[in-house]
Amino acid sequence: MTASTLPADTADLAFARKDILRIATAGSVDDGKSTLIGRLLYDSKAVFEDQYEAVERASAGGDYVNLALLTDGLRAEREQGITIDVAYRYFATPRRTFIMADTPGHVQYTRNMVTGASTADLAIVLVDARKGMLEQSRRHAFLASLLRVPHLVVAVNKMDLVDWSEKTYEAIRDEFTSFAAKLNIPDLTVIPISALHGDNVVTRSANSPWYDGSSLLHHLEHVHVASDRNLVDSRFPVQFVIRPQSDAFHDYRGYAGTVASGVLRPGDEVQVLPSGLTSTVAAIDGPRGPVDEAFAPMAVTVRLKDDLDVSRGDLICRPQNAPQVTQDLDAMIAWMADEPLRPRQRLAIKHSTRTVRAMVKDLQYRLDVNTLHRDMEATELGLNDIGRVQLRTTQPLFIDDYSRNRVTGRFILIDEATNATVGAGMLTTST
Amino acid sequence: MTTPDHRPTPDYRLSQLETLEAESIHVIREVVAELERPVLLFSGGKDSIVMLELARKAFAPARIPFPVMHVDTGLNFPDVLQFRDRRVTELGVHLIVASVPEAIAQGTVKEEPNGSRNRIQTPVLLDAVEKHGFTALFGGARRDEDKARAKERVFSFRDEFGQWDPKNQRPELWDLYNGRIHLGESIRVFPLSNWTELDIWQYIAREQIAIPQLYLAAERDVVERQGMLYAVNEFITPREGEQIRREMVRYRTVGDANLTAAVPSTATTVEDVIAEISVTRMTERGATRGDDKVSDAAMEDRKKEGYF
């Protein structure tokens, strides 16, 4: 049997070349977030019969099958009826495959939302049409913009409970649009839906003749993400040095790593940081042998013409376009530990493939994630707080502004006593 | 055969398989760079075959810089064990076998009354980890397999008893993995976290990776037991009232031979398997595993005890 004997849809799903869209959702069970995800999974046939039967059994007695039970997987979550941690869901259509980070919406889970948004191409914020834009909707939108998620979708849910009122939808859309204008949100889309009944989730609903946009799934399938990545600034953090030391590859010395941004080609003149020495790219080996060019997020091995001393933590770039080399960092930090962050504190910092020590020099302000008010008097950052912090590192890092480069502009903070990941940082290089 | 185009698109987007491949290679390299004694769990099943292939690519043209380990329950399909040994020899990697039957003979674990060795393989795994001093264990688990797995990190921290604490996991941001541990602790690493069953099969097709014959449909003698088809073999003999019949079946998962059911199938090539999986309406574990039917949270409970 070949692909051509299959029904067209199946052949596309099975064999077409697709790309991946990473989505983050934030919201609580009250907003109908789990129901929406359950609906997307169910209607795109990513939910299997045995899973559905288990959910049907578990929701016996209710009027509807509780689709939220498809996603809340831990014992504690099922017992308490809440989402605690980030869960990852997978579904596919003939056009795209989707990885969805499903995160809880309450303020005490801000760190989980930040985690989910960190890798996302698109974030979905849920708003209950009856309640309009709440404090938490603003917080979710702000966190998406802080993490520089390029596309934001506001799903105005429970439209069935406001009789599909166009006025209600427009009021929420206008309020959100003016709020988003204050944030860094390059692409905002507002969609009226009913997750419970499936309106405008997979297909356009007859209940909203006044709405001329796409269904949610259609939007997810077609949103244009090709221009989201930085293809200009070549950055290649060296992850591991490959030296086979075998007879067949006696002189092989390759620098393995994942391209952070830009494009690298054999023949390119390059500079290695921190040494500053220059060389030329002799070859780039991909998973299937030599390649003509490498771009993010390809995992490759770069060979140079000259025998330089290059090791893990070094960075290969173009001589005329290098990142900032500095021990002084300015960053927005999302704090994730019970013990607060305070000035003078010492931490380990992992930035690309380089891990160094750092000291907190100054806490400039703490940000109220609901009102965006800057508290200049703050003396510490508690669990789930976000603030602007200055750090001094023991060794230089090779950094870019997070808004320009999501890879070389980010880092995590590690407590060296407990080994816990205690913070996430987004660098700002402009003053 | 129709396979996805190998060349990148002009707009510098990777396909879904290329993206997943790159992500997995990044994870595998990061472990070797940051943790001292990694080992890869290799059973000869399709997921661990793909994981081993990704490890090969991560370090080529050098050899894979860590050994592989198999927790042998003594209930494996012979076809799969032969495949395991052949693949390990081809790659020149060292294979460590942690044997459950040996542990039973020595009295360190006891056979469970129902004949399942699913739970008792955990102490055998943990003993082997301690004996060899492994600090990082690569596992081929995927998040789409189970609700508990869907919540687990790529770098999953385990305490000195190998236990998973689902409510106290390290935040995992971007691709900045935290592999720091104290003596006795370890990290379970899941490079295939974001792959689905369909991705695995598409990758096997695209890369033309060899797999055990059990994964392809053939006429086999089967008995029907609790609605599932079990192939008759040295571990499964017909019980009273069960009729042996001959059917075209294949295995979607390869676990212990006494517990893994086959599914009716006409898929005799990898491409056929992909076509079948694209339209299937049952999860692979639900369709084939007697051991996951115990409770809705069976996997979470086993993982807390140190299971993969």
Give me a quick take on this structure:
The complex is a heterodimer of chains A (431) and B (308). With 431 residues, chain A is an alpha+beta fold.
Layout of helices and strands:
The complex is a heterodimer of chains A (431) and B (308).
Chain A: H1 8-15, E1 19-27, H2 33-43, H3 49-58, H4 75-80, E2 87-92, E3 96-104, H5 110-118, E4 122-128, H6 135-146, E5 151-157, H7 166-180, E6 187-192, H8 216-222, E7 235-237, E8 240-242, E9 254-258, E10 263-264, E11 269-273, E12 278-286, E13 289-290, E14 294-295, E15 299-304, E16 315-317, E17 324-335, E18 346-351, E19 354-367, E20 374-375, E21 386-399, E22 410-414, E23 421-427
Parallel strand pairs in A: 1-3, 1-4, 4-5, 5-6
Antiparallel strand pairs in A: 2-3, 7-16, 8-9, 9-15, 10-14, 11-12, 11-16, 12-13, 12-15, 17-21, 17-23, 18-19, 18-22, 19-20, 19-21, 22-23
Chain B: H1 16-34, E1 38-41, H2 46-59, E2 68-72, H3 78-91, E3 95-99, H4 100-106, H5 121-132, E4 136-138, E5 155-158, E6 186-189, H6 197-207, E7 218-225, E8 228-231, E9 245-250, E10 263-264, H7 270-279, H8 284-288, H9 298-304
Parallel strand pairs in B: 1-2, 1-4, 2-3, 4-6
Antiparallel strand pairs in B: 5-6, 7-8, 7-9, 9-10
Secondary-structure content class of chain B: alpha/beta
Amino- and carboxy-terminal Cα gap of chain B:
36 Å
Overall radius of gyration of chain B: 19 Å
Shape of chain B: globular
Average pLDDT across residues of chain B?
Answer: 87
Task: Kindly describe this structure.
The complex is a heterodimer of chains A (431) and B (308). Chain A has helices at residues 8-15, 33-43, 49-58, 75-80, 110-118, 135-146, 166-180, 216-222, and strands at residues 19-27, 87-92, 96-104, 122-128, 151-157, 187-192, 235-237, 240-242, 254-258, 263-264, 269-273, 278-286, 289-290, 294-295, 299-304, 315-317, 324-335, 346-351, 354-367, 374-375, 386-399, 410-414, 421-427. Chain A is an alpha+beta fold and 431 residues long. In chain A, the strands form four sheets. In chain A, strands 7, 8, 9, 11, 12, 13, 15 and 16 form an eight-stranded antiparallel sheet that branches. A six-stranded mixed sheet of chain A has the order 2-3-1-4-5-6, with helices on both faces. Chain B has 308 residues and is of the alpha/beta class. Chain B has nine helices and ten strands. In chain B, the strands form two sheets. A six-stranded mixed sheet of chain B has the order 3-2-1-4-6-5. Chain B has a four-stranded antiparallel sheet with strand order 8-7-9-10, with no helix packed on it. In chain B, helix 1 (16-34) packs across helix 2 and helix 6 runs antiparallel to helix 7. The two termini of chain B are 36 Å apart. At the A-B interface, helix 1, helix 3, helix 4, strand 2 and strand 3 of A face helix 1, helix 2, helix 6 and helix 7 of B.
